[in-house]
Design a protein that fits this description.
single chain, mainly alpha, 3 helices, about 75% helix, globular
Amino acid sequence: MYDVVQVTGSLLILVAFVAALGGRLQQSSYTYLAVNFAGSAVLTITAVLSREWGFILLEGVWAAVSFWSMVRKSLGRPVAVSHGS
């Protein structure tokens, strides 16, 4: 069951990423941010349970940034700065 939870968290992040690359989701959309938050939060929890400190840091920050971006968006503030192409 633990592996299923980990794979599900990873797939959430990857699906959002691929959808953004394919132009199906905007990186500043609530959907993208929420899926990233959910996936990274799940992976943070599994990393805490197995005491994987590097992944706790990586996924914990990822979850925090995704959550903070949703808060900023709900307050009408920009989520990210465009870097151009």
